[in-house]
Description:
Blueprint: H1 6-10, H2 22-33, H3 45-59, H4 75-87, E1 99-100, H5 110-122, E2 128-132, H6 136-139, H7 150-156, H8 163-168, E3 173-178, H9 183-186, E4 190-193, E5 202-205, E6 211-214, H10 227-234, H11 242-253, H12 260-270, E7 280-281, E8 302-307, H13 321-325, E9 333-334, E10 339-341, H14 343-348, E11 361-367, E12 370-378, E13 386-390, E14 420-432, E15 436-437, E16 452-454, H15 455-460, E17 491-496, H16 505-513, H17 521-525, E18 534-540, E19 548-554, H18 563-567, E20 573-575, E21 581-583, H19 593-597, E22 604-605, H20 610-613, H21 621-624, E23 639-640, H22 646-658, H23 671-675, E24 681-685, H24 692-697, E25 702-703, E26 715-718, E27 720-722
Parallel strand pairs: 2-3, 3-4, 8-13, 10-12, 16-27, 17-26
Antiparallel strand pairs: 1-7, 5-6, 8-14, 9-15, 10-13, 11-12, 11-14, 17-24, 18-19, 20-21, 22-23, 25-26
Helix pairs in contact: 2-3, 2-4
Amino acid sequence: EAAFTNTGGAADHRIAVKPTEIADLALAIAAGVGVDGATAPTLPAKQAKWVAALAKDLKAHKGKALVLVGDAQPAYVHALGIAINQALGSIGPDGTVTYIEPIEVDPIDHLGSLAELAKDIEAGKVDTLLIFGGNPAYTAPVDLGIDETPEEVKVKGPDGLTKFARLLKKVPLSIRLGTHFDETSAVCTWHVPEAHFLETWGDARAFDGTASVVQPLIAPLYSGKSAYQILAVMLGQFDRSPLKIVQDYWKGQTKNPAGFDADWRKSIHDGLIAGSAATPKTVTVKPLASFGARPTVAKGELEILFRPDPTIWDGRYANNGWLQELPKPITKLTWDNAALIAPSTAEKLKLIVKDGKDNGRVVELTYKGRKLSVPVWIVPGQAEGTVVLHLGYGRSMAGRVGTGIGFNAYALRTLDAPWGGPGAEIKVTEASYPLASTQMHRYVEGRDLYRTATLAEILKNPAILHEGAEHSPDTLIPAEDTGWTYDSYKWGMAIDLNSCTGCNACVISCQAENNIPVIGKEQIMTGRNMQWMEIDTYFHGADINDPDIFFQPRACMHCENAPCELVCPVAATVHDAEGLNVMVYNRCVGTRYCGNNCPYKVRHFNFLNYSEIATPSMRTPSLQLLNNPDVTVRTRGVMEKCTYCVQRISGARINAKEKNERIKDGDVITACQAACPSQAIHFGDLNDHSSKVYKIKQDSRDYAMLGELNTRPRTTYLGKIRNPNPELIEA
């Protein structure tokens, strides 16, 4: 890959290459595993060594291996991926790859279809246009549409519209169904408010073809209509509800009309329609010669790579303050995008200054004759000679939060190169632009933060990840027992660093659950980010251009020997009978002694009345539902932090008391635990020796962050196991 991703960060081996070099690597791998007709191209020494070891490893695991190709790769590389899987015996019922009919009813080249529409509009062939979702006036390729005429510019000046937006204005009747009034709605004749998918009945298909009925959770807040309803109206069916539309469709698909009502209720209960998965297909891979010519590219050129933003995606979530303030996994940037470049590229551009960085310097980026001024951000581990631009910023009609934030990468994105390509140029300017990153916020000092070992090391010494500084004599708190006893519950958490991918799902779920305020870019730049949970990103290695990367969630550790409790003059932070370190908000007077004394730096102080800043917008009906009623909305002058979702513990306690029984393992699931897609977070009662979290904490990988301080944290970590190929381990 060209730039670090969460997938690359989790890999045992990763190689940074330009996007256009991946075709050569794929062809070399194909030749190495024995794809008929594949001839390995000449590669640089490092890449050749990497490919040789990889091909050998793949061949040693025939039938169990899997090669995946990223969505930004050209068709040629995807075809090579198919051929490699075929050569490895991975295709078929006993392999790792199964082919099915396409999930789309009518699979097409969507960009090509959009280009056809543009031609038809220009030719005057379109008199009525329906647009369901999407935002083509903002996201369409910059070269698709019509230019302003010199007369238009002379009379009224530049109108600020994209070429495609200007094209849409030529359609006599255009109707847009969308959840928000945006750039596309502004140039259409009519905007129809779209019901959110949680406000209406619908259906959807999973990646394997399995169909599911989508049920509404609430009635539409703004009388929104679904796409089903609009299509029904266009067909002259004015009185059909979304429920009836969906029911009638599936009634027409059933082979058991008499039992449809029972089958329908079962589908609603189960969440999927039985037997709807696609049937596996037997395929024959065509010869390599039929794949066409390998893409060629001029060497030495600067390459640009467009990627969806890690938080706001293609711009559809730009007006969501939670996501704007969520630090991006690799750069930890908030409220902005930037041109990401490698340290070696920055050095060639003379962007490196005495302090080793020059983030925020504005450059003029030129690609295919178009220019964009954008600040740079230097990222370790990125391929030399590449520039990565995230999409979704620079919106002109995103809403109160998202309008005017960041830089519009779509202004450089063309129809023939939707994911970028070679030929970019960078000109350094004297201007600078402030960028807000949380990478060095709440910096934790210590020698015992993140532990990792190779599988070979662990097999040799199973306790290697557990051994360490816990036995250091230099403790923050005397080593004698605290005297705490727990007769009922004893809550604790374990986070498996082997499973954590640094995706940030836990951070945003904690913010939603616990009414954590959005504070804005200015406050982030002063170091006041309020998320109770953060993902630490560690770069490791001697070469800044080729480091390893590690992710580690960090929140309140709920220490048995809590340093914060010793120094609070008003007993606002106390230890409860179940081992939680809790905050009594109405006692806190804001001395911040607890934050100063916390070695983990996980306590957050409300410097401003962030909740009151948002009060006027709370008159909007949808935002009145924003806050969790089970959690206090904090005011200025109090310290706040992770509570192990104490409100969920209280709810489970009430339910257990009604049944006259103890809280069972799994009855309490914290917000971060519920959201984690890789199930890296485990929580439960440590007094219950049958609980999953208790068993996990007996693992030899379990360790305490900064254990040498004798704070005895209730949140511990399972160290990361790496399994590198011995042939690729450097001396």
